[in-house]
Design a protein that fits this description.
mainly alpha
Length: about 270
């Protein structure tokens, strides 16, 4: 239960959207990129080796919690209007997908889980930085005030595009590799649970595309945002570049990390 709170899993997930909304950008980045991963690390390094029989005994309950967490948080992300809340609920879905890989009981699932957590740390950090850049300029995170930024902030919109498609697990990004390995491992162990988890992958495309389209396309809301727009400055562009490079490199050359995860096969000896 302690690890479930940290990930978080349903019904212990309510704290995460509230924490992100009330936290500054840097705190949201640290929370999403690093601190949430402690729950997955604890399950991987403590629950599986020490409490393997208990994990098998409670596996139906764990699977039910994972599926509820993925579908509920994905549907909740679709109806949010605060940009940070959308990414926060998205984080819940992606972290629970990583937990599904942990409890798939095979090497592919475990490798996918670790890869997914690394990828989610990069993707969520990029999205929270981009949302923070908007908030610094216009002092609102309400998505209804935005639109048409692609015409006045092309560099910003380009970065937003790459991190949005990464959030939905698009091929060529690091998230695709992690999700693919998780589903390969999960389908080997339980086809029914994996089929329900696929709904979360579909819903992630829905809210990711909707968020990007609503912010970057459509009509400019000059009545609230004003008529002066500033694209990414040099410091912001460098920050995004440091995140964009590993996002793409890990998507096209995953063996950089997967070669170091071969030790996971010893979990099943």
């Amino acid at each position: 239960m302690g690890f479930a709170v940290k990930i978080p899993m349903f019904p212990f997930h309510i704290w995460l959207p509230e924490a992100h909304v009330n936290a500054p950008t840097t705190a949201s980045v640290i929370l999403a990129s690093l601190l949430l991963k402690l729950g997955g690390y604890g399950m991987l390094e403590l629950l599986l080796p020490i409490c393997k029989n208990a994990c098998f005994y409670y596996l139906p309950f764990i699977y039910a919690t994972i599926i509820i967490s993925i579908i509920y948080s994905s549907m909740a992300a679709i109806v949010q209007t605060d940009l940070k809340r959308i990414v926060a609920y998205s984080s819940i879905a992606h972290m629970n997908l990583a937990i599904l890989g942990i409890f798939s009981w095979n090497c592919q699932g475990l490798q996918g889980s670790v890869y997914q957590m690394i990828s989610h740390g990069i993707t969520s950090a990029g999205l929270f930085f981009l949302i923070g850049f908007l908030y610094d300029r216009h002092h609102t995170r309400d998505i209804m005030y935005y639109g048409g930024l692609a015409t006045v902030m092309p560099l910003y919109s380009t970065n937003f595009f790459f991190f949005s498609i990464a959030n939905m697990g698009f091929p060529g990004t690091s998230a695709f590799v992690g999700e693919l390995l998780i589903f390969v491992g999960a389908f080997k162990h339980n086809t029914v649970v994996s089929s329900f988890a696929l709904a979360g992958a579909f819903l992630s495309a829905v809210y990711s595309i909707w968020m990007f389209n609503r912010v970057c396309y459509g009509s400019l809301n000059t009545s609230y945002l004003g008529k002066t727009f500033f694209d990414l400055n040099r410091q912001e562009a460098v920050v995004m570049l440091y995140l964009l490079i590993p996002l793409i490199v890990l998507g096209v050359y995953p063996s950089i990390i997967l070669d170091y995860l071969s030790y996971l096969k010893y979990f099943f000896n």
